[in-house]
Amino acid sequence: MLPQKMAVTLALGLTVLITGPGILPARAAVIDDLQQVAAVIAPAEYQELASRVNSYTRIYRVEEGDTLASLGRRFQADPELIAVMNYLDSGATLTPGQFLVLPHEEAQTYTVASGDTLWSIARRFGVDFDQLAAANGIVDTHNLRVGTVLTVPGSPAPKAARPVTGLASRSLKPVSMIWPLIGALTSGFGWRGGEFHHGLDIAGNMGDKIRAALAGTVVLSGWGNSVYGRMVKIDHGNGLETVYAHTSRNLVKEGEYVQAGEAIAEVGATGNASGPHVHFEVREKGKAVNPERFLAR
């Protein structure tokens, strides 16, 4: 394990950037070739950085004025997750030339089929409804023409950027979970106004059964706080947890082992909730990640 300072800093001197053998394009903030990085940093630093690159990440070189918050907005990622992925404190100051690993999901295409709605497509791919509409220039969201090919956005990137290629390791193929509640997806994972929404909001009727997305041990069943209200948290092992918030009544106790699909709570509107729904989160090692990566489609 490299010292934290070495793992975090990975900064380039101006002379190396201009005259080194592996010159990086002046405005190539998103690095599309790991070999460019290998040419300008020490081998040990390169190996540590490369070990964190996979199909769900990309390399970014910090530019003047960048902050964790601005990168979070630009790439639609949780600033705290970016910090954790790079061994940084949440309030860390970034240094121009510093290399960061960012979460990334590639854009996909989808051909509209009979019965599809923009809402159902957004839910299927785990993307924000408004972002999907904007990415495809859709004004009338109620009328989709069958056969239309839509671009399903992943993490937004500059037009000139390409996905990271080269050394890719530690595949993050997620486990498969079931939906905790069948209902309309009213809010997705990501930026919502001026705040980052750490899960999915699924609408339901008061008293509808909420089910465990995956087998595990209940580690919290009770009142969370004024935001989450009454909630259930399940530990699935290997640093993976799920959270079910705003419940009206919990049906399980702490220490109880539950199976996937087992009823664990009832839909409510406790805490900071505008109506009956479940706020569902998936956490990896304590940090919220997009639940749609895990949910069966």
TrEMBL record:
GO molecular function terms noted in the UniProt entry:
metalloendopeptidase activity
Q: Which InterPro entries match?
A: Cell_wall_metabolism_enzyme, Dup_hybrid_motif, LysM, LysM_dom_sf, M23ase_b-sheet_dom
LysM domain sequence ranges:
58-102, 108-152
Q: Which ranges form a coiled coil?
A: none
Q: What is this protein called?
A: Peptidase M23B
